[in-house]
Amino acid sequence: MHFYIASKETERFMKLIKFIIGSVLLLATIYSCNLIGGHHDHSTTFDYTARDSLGTIVAKGWLTLDLRDPVNVTGHWEIKQVKDSIYIGPQDGQGRLEGSLKNSGDMWIGLNPGYVDNNVFLNGKYENDKYSGKWMFSSFIGLTNWGTYVAVRR
Known about the structure:
The chain is α+β, with helices and mostly antiparallel strands and 154 residues long. It contains 1 helix and 8 strands, in the order H-E-E-E-E-E-E-E-E. It folds into 2 domains: 7-40; 43-153, Lipocalin.
């Protein structure tokens, strides 16, 4: 029977290896927590103004867009109607949004993901920290109302 007795140098070396492995694991854990929604905010906030088809301002608020993914856009919104004369659909309130962004800068967003009817769609162009285009309120009868919008990065 042979017994291996570690020398002091071997013990120090093993302690160093354990320390290095432990440090790497700790740093990897901290880094992954930050990536999974930890402390970094990758969203961009835009001030939103909607106008009716005649050019009158009908709603104001903000959109927060997460543009990290080169194709899929997600975020939140809060918009308040400022004029009672027209029905702007469910863009009066707050909620989550989903959409897509193309290489050309064309961006499409639904303010009420999961709904085809009773939804407001923003279809426009994203360039120079501005997202602008046409908003469309779609109900069970189809296109119910529309206008233009501009969302400028804060």
